[in-house]
Amino acid sequence: MGAVVIFIGVLALAAVSRAVRVLLGLLALGAVGLVLFLWHDSQERQRRETEVDFTELRTDVRLDGTTLRGRLTNTDPSGATMRRVTFRVRVRECKDCVVLGEDTQTVVVNIPSGQARDFSQMFYALPSRPYGSEPWVWDYDLLTVQGEKTSGLR
Fold this sequence. Notes:
- This protein has helices at residues 2-16, 18-50, and strands at 51-53, 57-64, 67-74, 81-92, 99-111, 116-122, 137-148.
- By secondary structure, the protein is of the alpha+beta class.
- The chain has 2 domains: 2-51; 54-148, Sandwich (Immunoglobulin-like), CATH 2.60.40.
- The strands form 2 sheets. The protein has a 4-stranded antiparallel sheet. A 3-stranded antiparallel sheet has the order 2-3-6, with no helix packed on it.
- Helix 1 (2-16) packs across helix 2.
- The radius of gyration is 27 Å and the shape is elongated.
- The two termini are 44 Å apart.
């Protein structure tokens, strides 16, 4: 009963005072912000709990100029679905020469356990080869493979 009396008193003050209306508006805005923050935090926590770092996969990858093409096979025994694969591509004048360009790209995939998918990813931040120069050496590294457990989730 006391809370109702206080609520009615605050509303009466809001009707009379502009400062109270502004204060109530700011409090309401802060409450909405807090609710959204807590909701987003719970969603992020749930996503992290279902993430998997893959140790079981097969790659068949080749570089065609600035495009990395290949096939990724999800051989993870836990039944997790592969979602993201991050590659780094480097360009050098020769095998042991200094790096002339480097780019990192994440390929978004959807590969259930026991399946394979082809992919193609352009690497835009790599230098173009000057005309008449020797062919450059390209190499790539597989940096991360991430996915999520899918059993029991909808």
